[in-house]
């Protein structure tokens, strides 16, 4: 490697060492990165859940599910004997 190639690499290493030397800056950077990751996951999940809820509302599965549940529930049979 030539001196022209080594100098930028040394500058990158120095910047990384400065971050390590400043623990508060490193902690705050990781904290903000964690919050950003969590919020991104939350919003992504909300978008996917909203899309799925919209698709299910368009399919109108309520009637089919209601009919299935009613078929599972036994219907009472009332036999009334008339005294006349």
Shape: rod-shaped
Please mark out the parts with pLDDT under 50 across 5 or more consecutive residues, or reply none: none
Overall helicity: over 70%
**What's the overall average pLDDT, rounded?**
86
Q: Can you count the helices?
A: 3
Distance, first to last CA? 113 Å
Alpha carbon gyration radius = 33 Å
Helical/strand content category: mainly alpha
Proportion in β-strands: under 5%
Q: H/E element string? A: HHH
Largest β sheet strand count, sense and barrel closure: none
Annotation, overall tally of beta strands: 0
Question: How would you describe this structure to a colleague?
Answer:
The protein has about 80 residues and is mainly alpha-helical. The protein has a domain at about 5-60. The termini are far apart. The mean pLDDT is about 85. The chain has helices at about 5-20, 25-60, 60-70. The longest helix has about 35 residues, at about 25-60.
Keywords:
mainly alpha
Nutshell version of this structure?
This protein is mostly helical. It is built from 3 helices and no strands. The chain has a domain at 7-62.
